[in-house]
Amino acid sequence: MALPVTRRRERLIPAQWSAFPEFEELYDRMGRLLETAFGEPAATPMTWTPLADVSEDDTSYIVEVEVPGMSKDDIDIQVNGNEMIISGHIEKEEKEGVRAHRRMRRYGQFEYRTLLPGDIETEGVRAKLDNGVLTVTAPKSAEDQPRRVSIES
């Protein structure tokens, strides 16, 4: 004997509910979990890590970090041995009478830490901020730079 099919007339999900905040929270939590498991963990739970690239040429290491909307006074760069720490704070701008529907940009305290593959000359480290990209150039120490070896006969 088959039971009659009835339809529910009430909604299980409220009409004003949106999935986007739920997905954004889940995305942030998964990102923090993956950073802790596979990357370099952030200094504090509320600190986030900006996108960055690390490369090198024959004479130096180059670190490029995305910091849109920041000025040079808002960024702190520290070098200790071959570790580089770039940190700062991005303020969230609240506008009167404006409701946010989606927030994708990150705000608050950020920190990027990296260990460079070799020793550097800390006195020669230079930084440049251009179009929201911070470029830090750290010259390699004399011992880490390639040199030509002559062959004796």
UniProtKB/TrEMBL annotation:
Entry's transmembrane regions: none
SHSP domain segment(s): 42-153
CDD domains in alphabetical order: ACD_sHsps-like (cd06464)
Family: Belongs to the small heat shock protein (HSP20) family.
Name used for this protein in its record: Hsp20/alpha crystallin family protein
Native organism: Thermobifida alba (Thermomonospora alba)
Lineage of origin: Bacteria, Bacillati, Actinomycetota, Actinomycetes, Streptosporangiales
